[in-house]
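Title: Prediction job returns without error message
Component: structure pipeline
Severity: low
Priority: P3
Assignee: unassigned

Description:
Job completed but the reporter wants confirmation the result is attached to the right record. Sequence as submitted:
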Amino acid sequence: MNATLTPANTAELVEAVRSTPRLIAVGSGTKPRLSAVSAVKLSTAKLTGIVEYEPSEFTFTALAGTPLREIVETLAAQGQYLPFDPMLVAKGATLGGTVASGVSGPGRFRFGGLRDFILAVQFVDGAGRLLRMGGKVVKNAAGFDLPKFFVGSLGRFGILTEITFKVFPRHTSRLTLMLETVGPEIATQILTQAGASRWELDALDWLPDTKNIAARLVGPTESLDALANEILNRFPGERLTTEVADEKWGALTEFEWAKNSKALDAKADSALLLKMPTTPVTSASLRGTLEEFGATVLVSGGGNVAFASFSSDAKVTAIDAKLKLLKVPCITLRGDAPLWLGARHDFQIAAAVKNALDAENRFPGLEEFD
């Protein structure tokens, strides 16, 4: 089914859900494999705008189709930001699509990922009911924190209409160090030691060039200088200017390093982009395995998540078999491949939430991937 519904407001969205037996929400299409299922597409393109923003309360509420760029710019004007570094901002990613995909950027290393900042959701469930869960304050629930279940839900539980987040004040100073890895053993040493140190790094990413690890510090200028000297005394490397550092971090969060990165702008599906969990200790071996299949790899979040890009002719079956052998679960963000590769984990609680919110199976099931 190729039809796409484009409701102009929440009332129209509710009616579209009630009148359509099979559908899935889509955003701007920056991660198209996540919604590539047999169902009517419901676009949130017209559900845009910041509904409420009180800088003094450090929270905002926005409609699901709101481009992240608009949110980032609005927060920046008040000296605030989303510390998990949302991905694909420049390429048009939306707030709802980012929540549904569960993808966080380098900043998740220090302050946590997207899941740690979501406070409330308004959504339409499988029965066509408009529901709200959570609240607009940081401590808003004493029981089941359902909004977090929508992070990485891939549109399986309901269609998001509004989302509330908490935000942080932006640090006035930041400094990025480029640390030389000189092989996987040194890279593992940097990831494990830096991650366990008192430096409280803001971000720590092993770059796609395999030769460097980017370490970002934020805070008062005087303390950054002292910490940078201490780090560079332990690991060889150099300081980057703010302009160069911003360019490099921006290239990472926009996947400019990925094979055929222009496909992300053209909305083409030929380039294969995968996301998988890892650890600082195992990231080097996982990276080596992926590179044997021709992948370009970014290890982010201090060594706790990996993104791998392959050309369109990648041997998907062989990659899948290897990831299963390694017991690594993997999700396909872009490209012609199964949604899940490797060792996927099933959780009974997810099935229970799905049954409670979508007993009619109006949205794709947890086991439906194609």
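Comment from assignee: result matches the submitted record. The chain is about 30% helix and 25% strand.
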